[in-house]
Design a protein that fits this description.
The chain is of the alpha+beta class and 172 residues long. It has one domain. The chain is built from four helices and six strands. The protein has a six-stranded mixed sheet with strand order 1-2-3-4-6-5, sandwiched between helices. A hairpin with a 3-residue loop joins strand 2 and strand 3. The longest helix has 21 residues. The chain is globular. It starts with a strand and ends with a helix.
């Protein structure tokens, strides 16, 4: 059973509102999903991104500083969850960018090894201590899972892969 635990909003550097949804799954699993409020009605809201023209019009050369602000905000919220739930583990999916949607599409509708997945994974590895967290990879679905080692007995790698396949992917 999955439900939205809470919804956060914040403003990014481009002055757009970002919506962050935190979904709770059994076994202290939290999945974080974020998108621009202006895209909330789109079925592709997790895949959409700024065009170069939009970025330049806002006075930036690229979107990296805006992207990093968003990732740091998501990280801070994740840390807040850890303070409230010492067994918390996290999963996220690096949604396919518009150009990747048809490339490497899997039978379950996910897209394997997306660029966002690679970036999120590197970001996560930088901030989560491998002594306290295990990193479980599902490249074929571009899902990266950060398992809290305090919850390793209840949340084995096999259990995580089962949650990804049976709970997370069907609710994308």
């Amino acid at each position: 059973m999955v439900f939205i635990h809470v919804i956060y909003t914040f403003t990014n550097l481009f002055n757009d509102v970002v919506i962050l949804e935190v979904f709770y799954y059994p076994n202290n699993v939290y999945v974080l999903k974020f998108f621009l409020k202006r895209n909330k009605l789109s079925s592709k809201r997790y895949s959409m991104q700024y065009s170069l023209e939009e970025i330049l019009a806002k006075g930036y050369k690229n979107g990296s500083s805006n992207f990093l602000k968003t990732l740091y905000t998501v990280l801070i919220i994740g840390i807040e969850y850890l303070k409230k739930d010492e067994l918390a583990s996290f999963g996220f999916m690096g949604a396919a960018r518009p150009g990747e949607l048809e490339k490497n599409r899997m039978d379950d509708g996910t897209v394997s090894n997306t660029k966002r997945y690679s970036v999120y994974k590197l970001f996560t590895l930088r901030y989560f201590d491998p002594k306290k967290f295990a990193f479980i990879d599902s490249k074929t679905s571009s899902i990266f899972f950060i398992r809290n080692q305090k919850n390793a007995e209840k949340l084995s790698k096999g259990k995580v892969m089962q949650i990804i396949k049976n709970e997370i992917i069907p609710n994308l």
